[in-house]
Amino acid sequence: MIAIVEYEAGNVRSVINALRRCGVAEWTLTSDPSELMLADKVILPGVGDASVALASLRSLGLDLVIPKLECPVLGICVGMQVMCRHSDEGDVEGLGIFNADVRRFEREEPEQKIPHMGWNSIHDLSSPLFNGIGEGSFVYYVHSYYAGLCENTIATTGHIVPFSAALGKRNFYGTQFHPEKSGPTGAMILDNFLSL
Amino acid sequence: MVAKRIIPCLDVKDGRTVKGINFLGLKDVGDAVELGARYASEGADELVYLDISATFEGRKTFVDLVSSISERIDIPFTVGGGISSLSDAGRLLEAGADKITINSAALRNPDLVGDIAYHFGSQFVVVAIDARREGDRWAAMSDGGRRPTDKELFSWAREVQERGAGEILFTSMDHDGTRKGYPCDVFAQLCGSLSIPVIASGGAGSAEDIAEVLSEGKADAALAASIFHYGETTVRELKEYLFARGINVRL
């Protein structure tokens, strides 16, 4: 069973629709720790403010559950950011799974826009998550905060600075981009995750 | 570097797309989901669906349509038309829209921009501005460009950015429908004065016009309807042309 973590971090509709398009017939939307522990795969979506998302995970006790999960876990966007050490958004401690800190983009030139919104290319792909995906493939982003490069970086993208497009450590994965909105490339990344 | 976006715009009335012809192999050009899927497969970066229904029933049908679009389409899509409250926006979010666009409602009630951004995030709010030149000034217009307002393009755009808008969609009423190109100097000035992305709309008659607004005009994205609907160019042909002109697009 694929479990999608239900917490106060935006709309999960598009993630569920993308799973359906990948042929997933059964999933559960849950914040129950025992269901998460029994799942084959866990997806942690997230839109909005990382500090709000973390407060919600803590109030549900999931900040203690998620780091102990042994199945493949995929955090998307803010779902990835909350798995980092610290976020400048609300100055909060994260779950500390990935050895990266989350910072706000600072503009250096007028043409650099914040949020980083739209399609950008991914490079330095080094994870089974990207099997079959070519260097320089485009994926869809919407974010104003980013995780810096670290030893857990499994893909990079450049916007003002180079940052972690995706992070990976043991059974934990995170993408800053939205695979559920990234056309066939995103579908393949989700498929790769589901095949782990 | 983030790519410049090409965004086909589909007008929907009572759940069906209007305009739009010349798609080989497409059985029903009025099918908004099929038409959107076709654009997506041709390389559209996002889609915009504008509800031009004038009736309550038509609006209800549109929300159902948004659910169907969300199930099928795997790229971001924006919906607009007749959104005048936080609850209208919330219904469309629930139905699966990635963004909504508001225009006249924001002019009537500027607090709405901040309310929607606060509840659903800035990325969800695209503020559309229709403006026309009046002497030295660009006057923002409401109600589809019919009604003058006391707002001026540049200050209104900055105001909605401060209030939490995630993007600006600017249409020059002097150029819309003329197919003679965009006012690139105005776009360049607008883009240079904002930190959020600007989508250019209204005026494209050719691929060259779009290339100009994305380069000289510094726009982050271009919205187009007629050049795609009437089959003059496909999204893919347009993007190949832009790429050949040295513009960073997703192919």
List the helices and strands and how they pair.
The complex is a heterodimer of chains A (196) and B (251).
Chain A: E1 2-5, H1 13-21, E2 27-30, H2 33-38, E3 41-44, H3 50-59, H4 62-65, E4 73-76, H5 78-81, E5 86-87, E6 92-93, E7 101-104, E8 116-121, E9 138-143, E10 145-147, E11 153-159, E12 161-169, E13 172-175, H6 183-194
Parallel strand pairs in A: 1-2, 1-3, 3-4, 4-13, 5-7
Antiparallel strand pairs in A: 5-6, 7-10, 8-9, 11-12, 12-13
Chain B: E1 5-13, E2 16-18, H1 32-41, E3 47-51, H2 56-72, E4 77-80, H3 86-95, E5 99-102, H4 104-108, H5 111-120, E6 125-134, E7 137-142, E8 147-152, H6 153-163, E9 167-172, H7 184-192, E10 198-201, H8 207-215, E11 221-224, H9 226-229, H10 235-244
Parallel strand pairs in B: 1-3, 1-11, 3-4, 4-5, 5-6, 6-9, 9-10, 10-11
Antiparallel strand pairs in B: 1-2, 6-7, 7-8
Helix pairs in contact in B: 1-2, 2-3, 3-5
What does this 3D model show about the protein?
- The complex is a heterodimer of chains A (196) and B (251).
- Chain A has 6 helices and 13 strands.
- With 196 residues, chain A is α/β, with parallel strands linked by helices.
- Chain A has one domain (2-194): Class I glutamine amidotransferase (GATase) domain (Rossmann fold, 3-Layer(aba) Sandwich), CATH 3.40.50.880.
- In chain A, a hairpin with a 2-residue loop joins strand 12 and strand 13.
- The longest helix of chain A has 12 residues, at 183-194.
- Chain A is globular.
- In chain A, 53% of the residues are buried.
- Chain B has one domain (5-244): Aldolase class I (TIM Barrel, Alpha-Beta Barrel).
- Chain B has helices at 32-41, 56-72, 86-95, 104-108, 111-120, 153-163, 184-192, 207-215, 226-229, 235-244, and strands at residues 5-13, 16-18, 47-51, 77-80, 99-102, 125-134, 137-142, 147-152, 167-172, 198-201, 221-224.
- An 8-stranded parallel beta barrel of chain B has the order 1-3-4-5-6-9-10-11, surrounded by 7 helices.
- In chain B, strand 4, helix 3 and strand 5 form a beta-alpha-beta unit.
- In chain B, helix 1 runs parallel beside helix 2 (56-72), helix 2 packs parallel to helix 3 and helix 3 runs parallel beside helix 5.
- Chain B starts with a strand and ends in a 7-residue tail after the last helix.
